[in-house]
Amino acid sequence: SLEAHSNHPLAKSLAYKGELFELTELSEIAGRGITGKINGKSYFAGNDKLMKELNLTVPETEDTVIYLAESHQLLAVATFNSKVKAESSQTIKTLQGQGLKAVMLTGDNRNSARKIQELVQLDEIYTDLSPEEKATIVQKTPRAMMVGDGINDAIALAGATIGLAMATGSDIAMEAGDVTVVGGQLHKITTFFEVSRKTMRKIKQNYFWAFIYNLIGIPLAALGLLNPMLAAAAMSLSSVSVILNSLLLTKSKVK
Mind listing the pLDDT tens digit for each residue in 51-93? Predict the structure, then answer.
């Protein structure tokens, strides 16, 4: 009943189509979980951080877990063991081959995160993070690109040099990011870099040819050697050439 009101991806996997309890005083606890009252009694669903705040002891696990509790008693545990996408390892390897450092920021526990690190060969991991802690790490990292899809990633996405949101995630993440990857395919992160590099090359080419036009045309005009009609035509030709060169990007093939 609690998780039916949460936007977290794990909450969606707990979706129940039967009758749910009526909730009052429902509120999300950022980076930790959700709470609400059923028949006047408070219930909490969330991670181990939330349980520790309630002074409850929870077992260590290598999986991602959602705990259900009352104020003074642990009631249930839901364990999640998701598969790593097949393209994850290759995407990370490609990015590392381009000189980038792959770091995972997660609210999950360290044991769970280490499993992922070993599977996809991440350079570094930070675990048990709140949304604010993710944002602090990103903001302290020069030229950081943050990739995320959840509500808990939104602050970090907004604070990164480049915020790249996955379209399969939450709306708030896409609003916070600078770029949205359509389809949720991880390999498109490498495509983003490829498109960026090609765009920068076009910009430099356009600057070069515009500079050459002016380098030749301005001295000729200053010496009175350039007919005003020809000067106007040359300026128009300069603008057209820049536009046409930029439009060639649409013909560029990317993976």
Answer: 999 999 888 777 788 999 998 899 999 988 777 888 899 999 9
Q: Rounded distance, CA 27 to CA 34, Å?
A: 6
Q: Can you tell me the distance from the alpha carbon of 36 to that of 70, in angstroms, rounded to the nearest whole number?
A: 10
> In 10 A of CB 183, how many CB atoms?
9
Pick from 34-48, 160-174, 241-255: least confident: 241-255
The pairs formed by 7-13 with CB atoms below 8 angstroms and a separation of 24 or more are 7/150, 7/151, 7/170, 8/150, 8/151, 8/152, 9/149, 9/150, 9/169, 10/64, 10/66, 10/80, 11/66, 13/80
Q: What digits encode the pLDDT tens for the residues 148-204? A: 988 889 999 999 999 999 888 778 889 999 999 887 788 889 989 998 999 999 999
Q: How confident is the model at residue 133 (pLDDT cuts 50, 70, 90)?
A: very high
What's this model's pTM, rounded to 2 decimal places? Answer: 0.72
183: phi then psi, degrees, rounded to nearest 5: 90, -10
- Token readout for 253 is 């093939």
Domain 3-80 in CATH: superfamily?
Calcium-transporting ATPase, cytoplasmic domain N (3.40.1110.10)
Determine how many CB atoms are found less than 10 A away from the CB of residue 207.
Answer: 11
Asked if 179 contacts 165 with a C-beta cutoff of 8 angstroms, the reply is: yes
Please state the CATH superfamily assignment of the domain spanning residues 88-188 in this structure.
Answer: HAD superfamily/HAD-like (3.40.50.1000)
